[in-house]
């Protein structure tokens, strides 16, 4: 499969929202019960590091970042959200996309990426481990899924070897 990665464009929302819905439907990708309107989705994600994976002109996945906090000291820390359409899962597209997100996040000065993965999502765990993330812990029964089951979230992080953290108080 010949996967290319590019910046997300406004016209990609239809494909991105369909792929996100596929993730919601699995029950192992997110606690989100439905795809939000674009305006809500847009506000909750960083304006940089919005990437899509494309095969033969079709968007097959996306990776974006969310801020972990509004506090200045966490400006270089972001949470990863990555989804691949089920028809392309397991073909290496996720690895290509996550590597591209890592490179772009470092270019943007982000020094640490975090991922919260619902327990039972073995494919996402493998992907993050393959891309240099390490397990740092979990939160037990932190959220209730759409079926009423309380689920654990496993936390992974990847610290940049390229970007040095700068103390905003020292500027």
From TrEMBL:
Keywords: Acyltransferase, Membrane, Transferase, Transmembrane, Transmembrane helix
Entry keyword annotation includes Transmembrane helix: yes
Domain named N-acetyltransferase: residues: 3-157
Signal peptide: none
Keyword Ribonucleoprotein: no
Transmembrane segments: 48-68, 80-103
Top-level taxon of origin: Archaea
Name of the protein in its database record: GNAT family N-acetyltransferase
Species annotation: Methanocorpusculum vombati
């Amino acid at each position: 499969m010949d996967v290319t990665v590019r910046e997300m464009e406004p016209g990609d929302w239809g494909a991105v929202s369909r792929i996100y819905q596929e993730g919601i439907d699995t029950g192992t990708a997110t606690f989100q019960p439905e795809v939000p309107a674009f305006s809500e989705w847009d506000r909750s994600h960083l304006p940089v590091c919005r990437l899509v994976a494309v095969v033969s002109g079709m968007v097959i996945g996306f990776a974006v970042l969310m801020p972990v906090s509004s506090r200045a000291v966490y400006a270089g820390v972001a949470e990863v959200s990555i989804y691949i359409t089920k028809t392309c899962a397991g073909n290496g597209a996720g690895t290509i996309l996550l590597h591209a997100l890592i490179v772009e996040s470092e270019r943007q000065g982000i020094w640490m990426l975090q991922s919260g993965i619902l327990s039972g999502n073995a494919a996402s765990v493998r992907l993050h481990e393959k891309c240099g993330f390490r397990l740092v812990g979990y939160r037990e029964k932190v959220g209730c899924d759409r079926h009423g089951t309380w689920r654990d979230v496993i936390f992974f992080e990847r610290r940049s070897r390229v970007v040095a953290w700068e103390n905003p108080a020292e500027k």
